[in-house]
Queue: 4 jobs
Job 1
Amino acid sequence: MSSVDYEAIWTGVWGDMQRYGPTHRHRRRIFGRLIEELPAERITTIADVGCGEGSNLADWAQKFPRAQLFGFDVSQTALNRAATRVKANYALLDITRECAAQTFELVTCAEVIEHLEDDVAAIRNIYAMTGQYALFSTVQGPMREFERSIGHVRSYQPGELRHKLESAGFQVMRIVEWGFPFYSPLYRDLFTIGSVEGVSHGRYGLGKKLMCHILYAVFFLNRLDRGDVIFALAKK
């Protein structure tokens, strides 16, 4: 892990961003599209590594109502919040140092590995937990300074994620790059202004939610073959 205190971040910084933020919503949308390519009848167990406050698990509960859900995170505060949103099996887990004792038909890992000093160890542990499929999302391209304050230790270079997944044993089925031009570079650069980045913190009132809905609509114009958000669907 990085040296960031994630209990403090979940208490005082991250709040409604993961639920209403336009980028987070599009990540879940694209995750959903990629998962639709998998045989649903074979997805009986799903684990979300770095589940945060449960937004991904809430989507999986709707898409796979018969699947058993598991959520893992390094923050007990995040797990407590997730437990109020969706019924699942939750546990503290540092994916760089350990893996769960069982395997899961699908393992998802969204916006996590860019936070990890030893992302290679994390990917290997996720491989060990994967029964059939794994789905990752992270960021690539130049890292912005504000991202360091929320625990980012890297932004991937072109081809780097695929190489690390394949080195761990995964077969990469599909790569999607998303975000140009409205998320990257425009929105991502805008957040380098401290006062703008700070607006995304905490609980959202009606005004912030409305702005998120507007940006979510605008972000549909982003390309699916270019951008700083990278998705990888892989199998074991």
Job 2
Amino acid sequence: MRSSPSGPDPLDPGAAGFAHRGLHSGLAVPENSLAAFDAAIDLRAGIECDLRLTADDRIIVFHDSDARRLCESPLQVGKTMWKDLASLRVSGHPIPLLENLLEQVAGRVPLLLEVKTQHDVRRWSPALSRELAGYRGPFGILSFDPRLVGRLRSEMPGVRRGLNVSDGLSALRRNIGMRRAAPDFLGVERTAIGKTWVANARNAMPIYCWTIRTAAERTQAEVHADALIWESDGRPRT
């Protein structure tokens, strides 16, 4: 990762970047699994992963709002107690809690914790504060929801906060979201890399680019971003 015009980045993952949902590879090593995180650690890559809040305020590492795609179950994460989700399996692997991930990583690589909100913005800060209070490794909290990112500024002061921005977002919505979130860094969709607004934002904060899946995408993004969030053939040269 080359130096950002905005200065040093406390979450700098180095040349290995951030492995998207861990270093996963099909059914044997599924996304957001402890096995995928182990593989990323072996590569010395940072880890990007997804967080969801259960009905009883437990934080699980899981991308979707329900368990249909990954577990063939109709259960909705936000409406289900952890004890009922704990028995589900993703290709034979248990769904990790955030506490399991933190214990496994133990500060060895930086973490990008992407919070998936769903009518639960007010419940996130207490849950995150509880789980992350004793963690001493580098981490940042990332979200598409500018309300959450903005709230964390006062509710979890000192924590690195990032806003994910899609390429298809209108300039008006993007600007409103960035003002509301006041982020420390941006996660930018790959197809937006190289646009003027990204270059301007990079003068003020680090830019992470998602999701890099090919060598050609990596070559382009390396010029315009400070760190790459990658998977598959987007794996960086280290």
Job 3
Amino acid sequence: MTTSKKIASLIVGALISCAVNAQSPGQPVTPKQFFPSRILNVYSPDSVGWVVTSAGSNGISFGKRGSESGETYGAQVIIFEMPSTTGSEELLSFVKKRIATMNPPPRFQEINSKYQYIENRGYPCVNVQIDFDDTAAVTPTGKEQLKLQVISLYCRHPEQQQLGFFVAYSHRGKVTDDQIESAAQNFIAAINVPKN
């Protein structure tokens, strides 16, 4: 088996129990519902109203509607293949490129961003706060321009060095949510690597 096939096999098996234990998309979850796996311990956000929006071999996503028309919240945990990096600057560069690929212009217009390399978990990570204008957000009434706020953490897995993971919490709406920081940090802090 080639190295890339071994990595793909690891990724496919990484969060399989998350996918198996999750209800089907659209089903509600309880606050801080636990989704264990061999690679990461995952919990749903710690408030009511969330549903599973997708679950697969590489991660799980949750969502809920806000009180305003077209307003939504999202939370996700995704595992991905991660190339070798040397030092904090190279990791920061990798994360910036990945985010740019996932949120390409002209649809996503970056308003502001902040990237910070950290090691307070005991392994290399990058904290990211970024705001976009989403010029073609899909809503029940059609496409419209909305604000997208994303608070996330990108890390190299401490035991599976060829894997990375990101944990993200987002808000999309006509105006920004000034209260997002606390909920986002609570969700991100709960996601952890299982202790052997």
Job 4
Amino acid sequence: MSPSEPSLDDKGLPQMVRPSFSQFQDIPIPDGAKMNMDRTLILGENDSWIGRLVIDSQSPKTKLFDFFKYRTGQFGWREITSVRSNTSVLSYQKKDRIMTIQIQSKSIIGTRIDITMSPKGAPNDRNNFSTMPINPSSLRPVEIQ
């Protein structure tokens, strides 16, 4: 069977593949959470994955903020900053990766958690354009056709 073909159950019918959090062993996952497959994009695996993991939960936003604030350090992450607000944000660093957790109430019921994992940029990278000085006189409007 090729990877593009669906797996079959014991009756020969296509089997529904359920998303699993088992590959995310380097971050805490709240009980009862469900992966939002439409919004999730993961590259890599184990403790070197990057991308965006989107989780839907029935837990209140305040409880989830406390969960991540307490549990993430137990996975070896060092907190950079946290802001509790309408959209709460927690940022962490572990080795050469940065993790940002955004927690917000969904429009109907529940809470959405966006976990973004990215590689840490080199602080002294000469090709990092964000640290290059810009001469305002060299700026000019760009015409879009």
